[in-house]
Specification:
alpha/beta; six-stranded mixed β-sheet; three-stranded antiparallel β-sheet; 17% strand
């Protein structure tokens, strides 16, 4: 091989090496771009999944019963209250199932739907407005089609608030909230041999918060307004979004007690491990 051929051979080798290097760089750059695109897609999918989880982590069952055949006149406030609370909760990201003038079957089906939605880390709210009856140590939500002539009928036709809260607990909910506006003088009491006014104390099970419209064993008369006294005050405190939900419940209790000169004192029972905030963002610790 002469000198000229040797130079050409070396030049060819150099060109081949340079070309191979360029191709390798191009392949590497393409792979890096693909990896970044894949990472970005995974991040978006994760964020969307987390957003969906957050949206489903707030669940509420709202029941407003107003038309009871045994009552002298319909209750107008429970349905108005249910609609107003539903709107407020939906603004705060709750998936709300609202039922008006619920029969016994309606209420049991609604609780079944609620149960199916509850997941670990869910925050669940129950609202009941209507007639409630205390039997023994339990308080019962009364459906509009209840046929009640004796105390045993309350257990048969009513739905125990405590049992509903237990069902939510069994599903692993992060926290349970309940607003019970049912401490009215019900139309069935005159039929019982022995009865007590108002509702029984509703003890908060683990990590729960319960607001009732009156002190256990007491009744609260309906006001003349569109909403009950309890709901009017509660909506104002929820909309203010100052502090957490337990703060809102306590402010409601204090305001009503003062405004009524102690005639109506709502009851708040809490075993929450954190004061949850209701706001536009996912529920979080109010102290954070």
């Amino acid at each position: 091989m002469n000198v000229t051929q040797l130079r050409i051979s070396r030049r060819s080798i150099a060109l081949a090496v340079a070309l191979f290097g360029m191709v390798s760089l191009a392949i590497g750059a393409h792979a890096a771009l693909n990896k970044r695109a894949l990472d970005a897609a995974k991040a978006i999918a994760t964020e969307q999944s987390e957003d969906a989880a957050r949206k489903s982590s707030r669940i509420a069952l709202v029941i407003g019963n107003g038309h009871y055949p045994d009552a002298n006149a319909p209750l107008t406030q429970p349905i108005n209250d249910a609609r107003a609370l539903t709107a407020a909760l939906r603004r705060n990201g709750f998936d709300v199932d609202v039922v008006e003038d619920a029969s016994k079957d309606d209420m049991h089906r609604a609780v079944g739907r609620l149960k199916s939605k509850v997941k670990p880390d869910s925050v669940v709210m129950l609202f009941f407005g209507g007639y409630g009856v205390q039997v023994g140590r339990e308080s019962y939500m009364i459906p509009v089609d209840a046929a009640i002539w004796k105390e045993a009928d309350v257990r048969r036709h009513g739905l125990s608030i405590e049992k509903v809260l237990d069902v939510i607990k069994e599903q692993g909910a992060r926290a349970r909230l309940a607003v019970v506006d049912a401490s009215r003088r019900n139309p069935y009491e005159r039929r019982f041999r022995a009865y007590s006014h108002g509702l029984a104390p509703i003890a908060a099970p683990d990590n729960a918060l319960i607001l009732s419209s009156a002190t256990p064993g007491k009744v609260a008369d309906d006001s003349e307004g569109q909403h009950s006294v309890l709901m009017s005050e509660l909506l104002g405190n929820l909309n203010a979004q100052a502090g957490g939900i337990e703060t809102a419940f306590n402010k409601t209790r204090v305001a009503i007690s003062r405004a009524s000169d102690g005639e109506q004192v709502p009851s708040v029972s809490s075993s929450l491990q954190e004061d949850l905030r209701l706001g536009a963002n996912p529920i979080e610790n109010a102290g954070s």
